[in-house]
Amino acid sequence: MRARTRRLYTFGIAALLLAAAAALAFFALRENANLFYTPEILAEKGTPDHGKEVKVGGWVEPGSLTYSEDGATMIFTVIDNSPNTITVSYTGIAPDLFREGQGVVATGTFQADGSFTARQILAKHDENYQPRELKPLEAAG
Protein backbone atom coordinates (compact mmCIF):
# COMPACT_ATOMS: atom_id res chain seq x y z
CA MET A 1 0.00 0.00 0.00
CA ARG A 2 1.33 3.39 -0.93
CA ALA A 3 1.95 6.08 1.70
CA ARG A 4 -0.64 8.37 0.16
CA THR A 5 -3.35 5.68 0.38
CA ARG A 6 -2.38 4.87 3.96
CA ARG A 7 -2.69 8.56 4.94
CA LEU A 8 -6.09 8.75 3.24
CA TYR A 9 -7.36 5.72 5.18
CA THR A 10 -5.96 7.11 8.44
CA PHE A 11 -7.62 10.48 7.83
CA GLY A 12 -10.95 8.79 6.98
CA ILE A 13 -10.93 6.65 10.12
CA ALA A 14 -10.01 9.66 12.28
CA ALA A 15 -12.83 11.73 10.74
CA LEU A 16 -15.29 8.89 11.32
CA LEU A 17 -14.25 8.53 14.98
CA LEU A 18 -14.49 12.30 15.51
CA ALA A 19 -18.00 12.41 13.97
CA ALA A 20 -19.10 9.48 16.17
CA ALA A 21 -17.75 11.19 19.31
CA ALA A 22 -19.50 14.45 18.37
CA ALA A 23 -22.80 12.63 17.78
CA LEU A 24 -22.57 10.83 21.13
CA ALA A 25 -21.83 14.10 22.95
CA PHE A 26 -24.71 15.85 21.18
CA PHE A 27 -27.27 13.20 22.13
CA ALA A 28 -26.02 12.96 25.72
CA LEU A 29 -26.16 16.72 26.24
CA ARG A 30 -29.50 17.11 24.51
CA GLU A 31 -31.20 14.79 26.99
CA ASN A 32 -29.67 16.60 29.97
CA ALA A 33 -30.17 20.18 28.82
CA ASN A 34 -31.31 22.22 31.77
CA LEU A 35 -33.43 24.92 30.15
CA PHE A 36 -36.65 26.47 31.38
CA TYR A 37 -39.84 27.55 29.66
CA THR A 38 -40.93 31.17 29.79
CA PRO A 39 -44.59 32.21 29.42
CA GLU A 40 -43.88 33.43 25.88
CA ILE A 41 -42.31 30.10 24.81
CA LEU A 42 -45.23 28.17 26.31
CA ALA A 43 -47.69 30.36 24.39
CA GLU A 44 -45.81 29.73 21.13
CA LYS A 45 -45.12 26.00 21.51
CA GLY A 46 -47.89 24.91 23.88
CA THR A 47 -47.53 23.25 27.25
CA PRO A 48 -45.50 20.04 27.57
CA ASP A 49 -47.26 16.74 28.27
CA HIS A 50 -48.90 16.66 31.69
CA GLY A 51 -46.86 14.72 34.19
CA LYS A 52 -43.53 15.49 32.45
CA GLU A 53 -41.16 17.36 34.78
CA VAL A 54 -40.05 20.71 33.36
CA LYS A 55 -38.82 24.09 34.56
CA VAL A 56 -40.63 27.37 34.10
CA GLY A 57 -39.03 30.72 34.72
CA GLY A 58 -39.57 34.45 34.70
CA TRP A 59 -40.46 37.07 37.29
CA VAL A 60 -43.00 36.81 40.08
CA GLU A 61 -45.73 39.26 39.15
CA PRO A 62 -46.12 41.97 41.81
CA GLY A 63 -49.42 41.58 43.66
CA SER A 64 -50.00 37.99 42.50
CA LEU A 65 -48.71 36.07 45.53
CA THR A 66 -51.54 34.48 47.52
CA TYR A 67 -51.77 31.64 50.01
CA SER A 68 -54.31 28.85 50.37
CA GLU A 69 -56.72 28.86 53.30
CA ASP A 70 -54.48 26.57 55.34
CA GLY A 71 -51.42 28.70 54.47
CA ALA A 72 -49.37 25.74 53.24
CA THR A 73 -49.69 26.36 49.49
CA MET A 74 -48.68 29.57 47.79
CA ILE A 75 -49.98 30.53 44.39
CA PHE A 76 -48.27 33.14 42.22
CA THR A 77 -48.05 34.24 38.61
CA VAL A 78 -44.86 34.10 36.54
CA ILE A 79 -44.47 36.78 33.87
CA ASP A 80 -41.93 37.77 31.26
CA ASN A 81 -41.80 40.55 28.67
CA SER A 82 -44.94 39.27 26.94
CA PRO A 83 -48.64 39.41 27.75
CA ASN A 84 -48.58 35.68 28.66
CA THR A 85 -48.44 34.33 32.21
CA ILE A 86 -48.07 31.03 34.08
CA THR A 87 -49.90 30.39 37.35
CA VAL A 88 -47.76 28.31 39.72
CA SER A 89 -48.78 26.59 42.93
CA TYR A 90 -46.14 25.47 45.43
CA THR A 91 -46.43 23.71 48.77
CA GLY A 92 -43.37 24.11 50.97
CA ILE A 93 -40.97 26.67 52.33
CA ALA A 94 -39.97 29.34 49.85
CA PRO A 95 -36.31 30.41 49.52
CA ASP A 96 -35.21 33.53 51.42
CA LEU A 97 -34.77 35.50 48.19
CA PHE A 98 -38.26 34.65 46.91
CA ARG A 99 -40.53 37.69 46.68
CA GLU A 100 -42.71 39.55 44.22
CA GLY A 101 -40.83 41.24 41.40
CA GLN A 102 -37.83 38.88 41.68
CA GLY A 103 -36.74 36.24 39.20
CA VAL A 104 -37.82 32.65 39.82
CA VAL A 105 -37.32 29.20 38.31
CA ALA A 106 -39.84 26.56 39.35
CA THR A 107 -39.38 22.82 38.72
CA GLY A 108 -42.54 20.76 38.52
CA THR A 109 -45.24 19.39 36.25
CA PHE A 110 -48.16 20.67 34.25
CA GLN A 111 -51.43 19.05 35.22
CA ALA A 112 -54.13 17.86 32.82
CA ASP A 113 -56.11 21.08 33.43
CA GLY A 114 -53.09 23.23 32.40
CA SER A 115 -52.07 24.35 35.89
CA PHE A 116 -48.43 24.12 36.99
CA THR A 117 -47.55 22.48 40.30
CA ALA A 118 -43.99 23.15 41.46
CA ARG A 119 -42.00 20.76 43.63
CA GLN A 120 -38.99 23.11 43.90
CA ILE A 121 -38.54 26.87 43.62
CA LEU A 122 -35.27 28.67 42.99
CA ALA A 123 -35.10 32.42 43.48
CA LYS A 124 -32.83 34.37 41.19
CA HIS A 125 -31.02 37.54 42.12
CA ASP A 126 -29.02 40.17 40.29
CA GLU A 127 -25.28 40.75 40.46
CA ASN A 128 -25.75 43.20 43.36
CA TYR A 129 -26.93 40.53 45.77
CA GLN A 130 -25.91 41.00 49.37
CA PRO A 131 -27.00 38.73 52.24
CA ARG A 132 -29.42 40.25 54.75
CA GLU A 133 -26.88 39.68 57.50
CA LEU A 134 -24.42 42.12 55.88
CA LYS A 135 -26.87 44.94 55.06
CA PRO A 136 -26.59 46.53 58.56
CA LEU A 137 -22.79 46.62 58.14
CA GLU A 138 -23.16 48.53 54.87
CA ALA A 139 -25.51 51.09 56.45
CA ALA A 140 -23.10 51.67 59.38
CA GLY A 141 -20.07 52.20 57.10
UniProtKB/TrEMBL annotation:
It is found in: Cell membrane; Membrane. Its main location: membrane. One of its GO terms (molecular function) is metal ion binding. InterPro entries: CcmE, CcmE-like_sf, NA-bd_OB-fold. Pfam families: CcmE. Heme binds at H125, Y129. GO terms for cellular component: plasma membrane. Keywords: Cell membrane, Cytochrome c-type biogenesis, Heme, Iron, Membrane, Metal-binding, Signal-anchor, Transmembrane, Transmembrane helix. Coiled coil: none annotated. Heme chaperone required for the biogenesis of c-type cytochromes. Transiently binds heme delivered by CcmC and transfers the heme to apo-cytochromes in a process facilitated by CcmF and CcmH. Belongs to the CcmE/CycJ family. This is Cytochrome c-type biogenesis protein CcmE. It comes from Hyphomonas beringensis.
